C-alpha cells in the first residue's frame, strides 16, 4: 500500500474478492514520504483490518531520484526507457518482506498494484517479474516447501490508468485521499510536473472522472 491510486484500487479489488486485508507500507527513505499518510487514510477508508509500516533504508543504496540526491525529472513528459525515479530492486524487496509477513500470519495471497500498461518503464512491474518472484518465494520459504505457497495477485497489471480509476470509482475508492506525486511540496501537495503527476492527470481525463489532486503553489495544473 503505497498511498497512490493504484495501490488503493488494488486494495479495493482485494476487498471485493472477499479477502480480509492487512496493508503493508514501506518507509524506505523516499522523498515523497507523504504517501505513508495517504496509505493510512486509504487503509482506513477501505476497511483494512490492519496497516503495518516497515522501515527499510533504501537511501543507503541510493541510485534513484526518489532515494538519492538526484533531481526528479520534471516537464510532465513520460520518458521512454527506465527513468531516474526507478528504485533499484524496490518491488523485489517489498514483495520479499510481504511474503515474510504473509508467512508469519498464515496468509497465502499477496496483492500488489503493479501495472504494465501505463507503467513508467519499471522492470519490476512486468508479469514476468511477478511470475519469477512467485517461483522464488515458493522455493525459498517454509510455507512454500510445506505446500502452503504464495499467490501474488496483480489485478491492475493489464489495465490502462483510466480503467484503473474507473474500477476504483466503482468500488468506492476516495481518490482525494491518495498521493501520487514524486516531488510534493512541504505540505504534501502535488508538483504537477513529474511523470507520476502526468500519468495520474491523463488517467482521470481519459476516465472521465473528476481529478481531486491538490496542487501546490506554482505547480503545473491541468
Topology:
Elements: H1 5-16, E1 22-27, H2 34-45, E2 50-55, H3 90-105, E3 109-111, H4 127-139, H5 142-145, E4 151-153, H6 161-170, H7 195-207
Parallel strand pairs: 1-2, 3-4
Helix pairs in contact: 1-6, 6-7
Overall pLDDT: 93
| Assembly state (oligomeric) | single chain
Helix content: 25-40%
Strand content: 5-15%
Description:
The protein has helices spanning about 5-15, 35-45, 90-105, 125-140, 140-145, 160-170, 195-205, and strands at about 20-25, 50-55, 110, 150-155. With about 220 residues, the protein is mainly alpha-helical. The chain has one domain (about 5-205): HUPs (Rossmann fold, 3-Layer(aba) Sandwich), CATH 3.40.50.620. The longest helix is centred in the middle third of the chain and has 16 residues, at about 90-105. It starts with a helix and ends in a 15-residue tail after the last helix.
Attribute tags:
single chain, 222 residues, mainly alpha, Rossmann fold, two-stranded parallel sheet, 8% strand
In a nutshell, what does this entry contain?
With 222 residues, the chain is mainly α. The chain has helices spanning 5-16, 34-45, 90-105, 127-139, 142-145, 161-170, 195-207; strands spanning 22-27, 50-55, 109-111, 151-153. Strand 1, helix 2 and strand 2 form a beta-alpha-beta unit.
